[in-house]
Amino acid sequence: MMTWLDGSDAAAVLSTLNLEEQYLLGREAGRTMSRIHAIPAPEDQPNWTQFYNDKIDRKLTAYVRCGIHVEGAEQIIAFIEEQRGLLKDRPQSLQHGDYHCGNMVITKEKMIGIIDFDRMDYGDPWEEFNRISWCAGVSPAFASGRINGYFDNQISETFFPLMALYMATNMISSIPWAIDYGAGEVDVMKREIKKAMDAYDHFQNVVPKWYRR
Questions:
Q1: Per the database record, which ranges form the Aminoglycoside phosphotransferase domain (predicted)?
Q2: Distance from CA of residue 191 to its chain's centroid?
Q3: Which fold has domain 2-199?
């Protein structure tokens, strides 16, 4: 598929660029995501509070039943339970569904393109940040730019706690998801969870260490 696109894998290209270039591309990725989220969800969408709380319940149940323990899982689950109230009255919009640098390309002109729209859905636009740790693992500058570009530097005080909730939910659900793909994928997810736990000081903070204004 990549050979048919005017660009190269963003995750590979970012490491060859300087920090300013990485940051500016992140800002553009953030602005692009905000344009996607400008498309509202249909009015008949299920209530987000109930929908996502049910989703959390399913993911926590799947984790408990999968039989694989992750170090720090108790802290992750406690944080999720404490933050459920943030889901109240959240808006919904179109979502890309898998928005991270692995689904982006960078052209020779250093412009960014978004690919793989096969998971498009509707939901809280801020849920779309639940995979940003994959970007931060490649380039903290790019990940920071994504946030700053999305909000044009006007970041709501509720954003970081809610992003942390969505990331925590994604973390705990990644283990039962990975089982079908083998022990190697489970180990990958365990490493990613450890990185995220370090970034959040085991959820003692809601702003990840890699973020820079």
A1: 2-151
A2: 16
A3: Aminoglycoside 3'-phosphotransferase; Chain: A, domain 2 (3.90.1200)
